[in-house]
Design a protein that fits this description.
Chain lengths: ~425, ~120
């Protein structure tokens, strides 16, 4: 039987009782999380206009709230796509003579314009994370277009003001249209670099939530969004190992979330975490995804996931295979010789049983001149730790104080202050 | 297709000691660049090399006064604007690929704003 979705005169077609309002709200919410990017991407290909496509997608969700109380469709995503595209066609027909604010998006030579092109969201991903957009804009646009967040939600998630968030999103959309950034999946030869930019954005979204500035230690909404984005990428690009590796890395970090904060809200370092509080099924998925990715390549995220895997599979902090961890960081240093990788390597090195702490300290001191680490609290914190173990307590105290002034996170600050207070007299 | 202006920025010290051979070589590189553009299915719509920035004059409009004429470029930079191309390309991805082939230290790629009779003011 064919039904016109979205018409207010819809009559329940089954004998089942109409779903409750709570149930409808839950299904719409879930469809928003799972299908927003698919619906939007399909409408963008039709309209070649991001703003119009966003409006119509939003309208389709509003209509769902109105018409699903009668009957929840068996395929909510498909229903939403059909309605959003119909709304878009109506508006395009009505507005042919109206002036557009921005030029139309550049697309590949038109293929078949059917509703259901499974790779559609991928065009959206690569457009949001185009290297010609500023990193800040890429992140804001990804949250807006791929996660379907409102400008206010983007602002709240990124801890920026609403006008700033709006400006970033508008500027990015204008550049996409005016500079003809194409709505396209990159060719095979461009894919590795373009994919790396996408993964970096998703990782940034996660980190923004994981070490949140301000009173909370983490922002579960943002970390959850990042995990969903990583899942989307794995689904869309199943043949590349790096999205798998990123998802594995995020899952392994996410699974330790509860144990990272004590009952009274204090930060608990990996070393002191109660490993029985880790989310075992999530860890298992993370480890298996990381392992699968590592078998197929040693990309940046595969190596990071390998480090995370060594941590979560160790029986305790002390029994972690620190030598292996150092080896992974060495491999990272070959392809991504960044000061942060060097810092992590030095920190891991200091934990290898019988490590030459003086040598580690000179490694850390050498990093003191890196501009990228100038305001990075982990460097003085790592130095403080090594200095304390060497018995140079005065210098350790100074380094802890320096770390305290650098961190923007309250829980981290409390933790560092306690370490400082805990130094032997 | 979209149009882009490539603004070529380079150090001008090169001009001080350039030999005729090096000059010829540079011209060849630009010839090769233009061939590469055409081969990629894009088009060179225009382009020129510019004399040194020390030969520039700047005219600045002033409220309630005669326009001010000064010696030198509007913006003094270490790497000066030394030439430009106007390229018609499929999209920004192609334009950026072509800019990578351009024989210049730094290339700024700017979309050209449509100003034809049916053009709309920019958003």
């Amino acid at each position: 039987m064919t039904r016109q979705p979205g018409t207010p005169t819809d009559v329940p077609s089954s004998a089942y009782p109409a779903p409750s309002a709570v149930e409808v709200a839950r299904v719409v919410e879930r469809a928003h999380r799972e299908s927003w990017s698919t619906v939007l991407a399909s409408v963008v290909r039709l309209t070649r206009d991001l703003d119009l496509a966003e409006d119509c997608t939003q309208d389709a969700f509003v209509r769902a709230l109105r018409s699903w109380p009668d009957e929840i469709p068996s395929n909510p995503g498909g229903w939403l796509t059909t309605v959003a595209r119909r709304l878009a066609l109506d508006r395009m027909r009505r507005e042919t003579n109206l002036r557009r604010k921005l030029p139309l998006l550049v697309e590949d030579p038109a293929g078949p314009d059917d509703e259901d092109q499974p790779t559609d969201p991928l065009r959206l991903v690569f457009t949001c994370c185009h290297p010609a957009l500023a990193r800040d804009s890429q992140v804001a646009l990804t949250l807006r277009l791929l996660c379907g967040l409102t400008t206010r939600e983007v602002a709240a998630d990124l801890l920026i003001s609403e006008p700033t968030a709006a400006a970033r999103i508008t500027r990015a959309k204008k550049k996409i249209a005016a500079a003809s950034i194409p709505y396209r999946i990159p060719a095979d030869e461009e894919l590795p670099t373009r994919l790396d930019a996408v993964l970096t954005v998703v990782h940034l979204v996660y980190t923004a939530g994981h070490v949140a500035a301000g009173p909370e230690l983490t922002r579960a909404d943002l970390t959850g969004r990042a995990v969903e984005l990583a899942r989307l990428l794995v689904r869309l690009i199943p043949d590349e190992p790096e999205p798998q590796a990123l998802l594995g890395l995020l899952l392994m970090t996410e699974a330790r979330g509860d144990a990272r904060v004590s009952e009274d809200g204090e930060l608990v370092l990996l070393a002191d975490q109660d490993r029985s509080r880790w989310d075992t099924p999530m860890l298992a998925e993370g480890v298996s995804r990381a392992t699968a990715a590592l078998k197929r390549g040693q990309g940046r995220f595969a190596l990071q996931a390998a480090v995370a895997g060594l941590h979560v599979t160790a029986p305790s902090w002390e029994k972690t295979e620190w030598r292996q961890v150092v080896r992974m960081y060495d491999a990272m240093m070959v392809s991504w010789p960044t000061p942060i990788v060097a810092l992590n390597r030095a920190a891991a090195h200091s934990l290898v049983p019988g490590a030459d702490l003086e040598a580690v300290l000179s490694e850390l001191d050498a990093l003191g001149n890196e501009p990228a680490l100038k305001s990075y609290a982990y460097l003085p914190a790592a130095r403080a730790d090594v200095l304390a173990r060497l018995g140079r307590l005065q210098e350790a105290a100074d380094a802890y104080r320096q770390a305290v002034t650098l961190t923007a996170n309250e829980a981290e600050r409390r933790f560092l202050t306690q370490r400082l207070a805990g130094l032997p007299e | 297709m979209a149009q882009y202006m490539f603004l070529l920025f380079d150090s001008e010290e090169w001009y001080d000691n350039v030999t005729p051979e090096e000059w010829q070589q540079a011209m060849k590189l630009h010839g090769a660049f233009m061939e590469a553009v055409e081969k990629a299915g894009a088009q060179v719509l225009g382009g020129e090399a510019l004399e040194r920035s020390s030969t520039a004059s700047t005219v600045r409009q002033r409220e309630g006064a005669e326009p001010l004429v000064t010696d030198g470029p509007f913006i003094e930079t270490k790497e000066a604007l030394g030439g430009y191309y106007v390229i018609e390309a499929r999209d920004l991805d192609q334009a950026l690929e072509l800019a990578k082939l351009c024989p210049s230290g730094t290339v700024e790629v700017r979309p050209v704003m449509p100003t034809g009779a049916d053009a709309q003011p920019p958003a």
